[in-house]
Design goal:
Major acute phase reactant. Apolipoprotein of the HDL complex. By secondary structure, this protein is mostly helical. The radius of gyration is 15 Å and the shape is globular.
């Protein structure tokens, strides 16, 4: 429901002027899938110190889709970090996660955070 409200907000208030709303929605959906794939890969890999890499990679892949993908990545990343904060997880870790999220969304190489020895599959 919040996602739908957010999309409507973008259309009405921010005005997706440079592209059609259909393109924006398509990019947002693709970006959401990119974020889910990075999360699934992180869980599958279960590799020590790889968290920041998967944060950066998910945001990077989503943002490459266009403004809709970047928007979806930001909403998902912020929601995840806010939930962690509310459940009492460390603020330091959340800050580092957000740094990796922004790194990826800005188009910088997510491999900057890639831990040594992480299988090439990821």
């Amino acid at each position: 429901m919040k996602l739908l409200i957010g999309i409507i907000f973008c259309f009405l208030v921010l005005g997706v002027e440079s592209q059609s709303w259909v393109d924006f929605l398509k990019q947002a959906g693709q970006g959401t899938r990119d974020m889910w794939r990075a999360y699934s890969d992180m869980r599958e890999a279960n590799y020590k110190n790889s968290d920041k890499y998967f944060h950066a990679r998910g945001n990077y892949d989503a943002a490459k889709r266009g403004p809709g993908g970047a928007w979806a990545a930001k909403v998902i990343s912020n929601a995840r970090e806010n939930i962690q904060r509310l459940t009492g997880h460390g603020a330091e870790d959340s800050k580092a996660d957000q740094f990796a999220n922004e790194w990826g969304r800005s188009g910088k190489d997510p491999n900057h955070f890639r831990p040594a020895g992480l299988p090439k599959k990821y």
